[in-house]
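Hypothesis: this fold can be encoded by more than one sequence.
Test: take the structure tokens below, design a sequence, compare later.
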């Protein structure tokens, strides 16, 4: 449910950022449990690939970045 509005925001901000500050990159922050459960499925992986999403996977309990994807 949350992916559609988050994806729309990501695409919009990414396009604006690429024009205003092309040397910077935008990452979508994803809690580790969501990444492991949801993003391991085929459709979310396809969405990430087709939209060239950069993900920052974090553990909210210990406030630690687990993984950066490019």
């Amino acid at each position: 449910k949350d992916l559609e509005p988050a994806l729309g925001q990501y695409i919009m901000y990414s396009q604006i950022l690429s024009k205003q500050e092309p040397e910077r990159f935008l990452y979508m922050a994803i809690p580790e449990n969501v990444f492991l459960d949801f993003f391991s499925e085929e459709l979310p992986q396809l969405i990430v690939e087709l939209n060239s999403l950069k993900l920052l996977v974090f553990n909210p309990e210990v406030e630690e970045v687990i993984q950066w994807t490019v």
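The two ends are 24 Å apart (CA to CA). The mean pLDDT is 93.
Hypothesis status: open.
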